[in-house]
Amino acid sequence: MTGLIGKNIGMTSIFLINGENVPCTIVQVGPCYIVQIKTIEKDGYSSIQLGIDDQKIRKTNKSLLNHFKKAGLSPKKKLLEFKMRKVSDFILGSSIPIDFFKEGELVHVKGISKGKGFQGVVKRHNFSGVGERTHGQHNRLRASGSIGAGSDPSRVFKGKKMAGKMGKQSVTIKNLKILKIDSNHNIIILKGSVPGNKNSYLMIQKKGWN
What we know:
210 residues, four-stranded antiparallel beta sheet, six-stranded antiparallel beta barrel, 2 domains, 3 helices, mainly beta
């Protein structure tokens, strides 16, 4: 198995043995259930599809209901797929325990970052603005400034850093250390922050898997 699905509970801080206070994120991992097993012979590649958190039947369409029925499971809110080299050891409909992870190991956490809406260049690209307000400038402190020459090339090059929509993108934070695991409550504590809002879902993978 390469990873599990988690839910961002929120941030806090804890003291290490040496007395250092470090920021960390509380993540609820699972219980994750195997909804589908894909094989090279049938699908062209091998992977495991996991589901987490029950969802009401009336909020699930018929095709998905049949999908969950094949696995003998109730509808799930979130589905994620993890590529595997070997899937013969897994049983459809079974759950993956949180003991899959170990304290002290490093993991990669992938999620959808917070949406910031339409933002200017200062917030979006860390521009410093056009400088001090001099020579009669008005409301120019956070402006982007010149974006290109007029006569040549007479256009703005593609990819120019400008104002626009910011956030709500797939972000992967690598090498986050697992500080503590609470198997009784399916909780792991990761050192540092993770992408996304509270209660957003995360893909947590062991280091060495992309």
